[in-house]
Structure formats: structure tokens, C-alpha cells
Design goal:
Length: 236
């Protein structure tokens, strides 16, 4: 909040180093008066979203999958802060490398997606969405560093496209669960058929979700967290 002397005061309860919080930046001119620059006008009504004081732990979680599977949508759906997205328009220059999943898909993530969600008021999940294209694999591997686990999104209309992402998680020994993103034109499949097609181990969670729906997406994340807790408990 702005003080009477024209300076910006920091909420004393705020946690320092929380890089994903949204703040309003004031600029002081030579007379000491404060004013927002034109490009900050759209942030005037943006609430400050600090991590709750009840939070006792945090975890880095990856959201992985092929291009167009719904990673950006899911993170945007559940994030309690304004999500960071690096969506870029798919250009003709990349047409030789990136295959469009459908005609309406005109953008793609070129670096990462980022969001934050608090579960039960005690656990914060920092969500990192990975690029889906093979040419961004070096960045994908960097994002995996320090991740406690991953949610692998799959599309039953093209299960084969998910093999690489799941394979990368296995190679990096990152625990994961699988969420089938239910698209309107997806055909239903039994759990046994999906597990067989994806070659999943018996203990790997498999859930159905709709990345556009908040409750459905949160349940998918809760399934992952429960799996991670069980895995850590068994290892201790």
C-alpha cells in the first residue's frame, strides 16, 4: 500500500522472495508524488496474493504432456494467482518442426507456464507447465530439476503423443500420476485399456479430468499429491 509520504510500504506479514506474487508498482517523480505508468493501469484492481500464513510446506510440481493436451488450460484453471504463460503464435517458420494438433490451435508454449495453488490451507503447489514440442526438450529437462512430482496429461485421441513425456519422467525418476483430459469428442476407454496402452505400473494413479473445470483439475492434483505422500512414506 502507498504511504502518506508517497513511498510504497510492504505488508509486514508478506513472505519475502515469493517471486510469483502480484504487486502494484508505484513510480515517484521528482516532486515526490506517486503515479502509475500507463502500462500498469490494468493492474490497479489486481489483489495482492501472498502465501497464507497457515502454509507449512511447498512443492514444485510439473504439468507435462504433448502439445495441445491442455497444460496451459489446467494451470490457468486452478491457479490462485494470475498465471504466467509463454504462449506464442505458431509461425510458418516452425511448421516443419511442430505439427498442429487441430486447425483451431494457433499458439503454443515456448518456455513454461506457471501458477500456484494452495491445498487445504497448508500445502502450496508451484505448478510448472512444460513445452510440448521435442525441440524444447532441453528446457523441459531444466524445469524438471527439483520437482517433487509431475502430473502427466494425456489425450485419448492421440495416446501415442504422450509416450515421450511419460518416458522422460521415467528416465528422470520423477514420480507422476496420469490425468486423461476429457475433450468433447474423446471416445470413452476403460481404465484397463488405458493402462495397457500407456504401459503404466499398477501403482501409478490414473484419473479422468476436464482441464477447463476447477474442481476436476484440483482433484487430479490431489490424486498426485496423495501418490507422492504414499511414495515418500514407503521410502522412509
Amino acid at each position: 500500500m502507498a504511504g502518506t509520504d508517497g513511498t510504497t510500504q510492504t505488508n509486514p506479514t508478506a513472505r519475502q522472495g515469493d517471486a510469483d506474487r502480484t504487486t502494484r508498482t508505484d513510480h515517484t517523480n521528482e516532486t515526490g508524488e506517486t503515479g502509475d505508468t500507463d502500462d500498469m493501469d490494468d493492474m490497479d484492481d489486481t489483489p495482492v496474493m501472498y502465501v497464507q500464513s497457515s502454509v507449512a510446506g511447498a512443492a514444485k510440481i510439473l504439468v507435462v504432456g504433448p502439445m495441445g493436451v491442455g497444460k496451459t488450460t489446467l494451470i490457468g484453471t486452478v491457479s490462485e494467482i494470475k498465471p504466467l504463460s509463454t504462449e506464442a503464435t505458431m509461425s510458418q517458420a516452425g511448421a516443419r518442426l511442430d505439427t498442429k494438433v487441430r486447425p483451431s490451435k494457433t499458439t503454443t508454449t515456448v518456455a513454461l507456464d506457471f501458477g500456484r495453488i494452495t491445498l487445504g490451507g497448508e500445502l502450496v503447489l508451484y505448478l510448472f507447465g512444460t513445452p510440448g514440442q521435442q525441440r524444447f526438450l532441453p528446457a523441459w529437462k531444466d524445469l524438471a530439476r527439483g520437482a517433487l512430482g509431475a502430473l502427466a496429461l494425456v489425450d485419448t485421441r492421440d495416446l501415442e503423443a504422450s509416450f515421450d513425456a511419460i518416458g522422460h519422467l521415467e528416465d528422470l525418476d520423477v514420480p507422476f500420476s496420469v490425468a486423461v483430459n476429457a475433450f468433447p469428442d474423446s471416445k470413452p476407454h476403460s481404465e484397463d485399456d488405458l493402462r495397457s496402452a500407456l504401459d503404466l505400473l499398477p501403482h501409478t494413479p490414473l484419473v479422468i479430468c476436464d482441464a477447463r473445470e476447477h474442481q476436476s483439475s484440483v482433484k487430479a492434483l490431489i490424486s498426485l499429491v496423495s501418490h507422492l505422500i504414499e511414495t515418500l512414506t514407503e521410502a522412509s
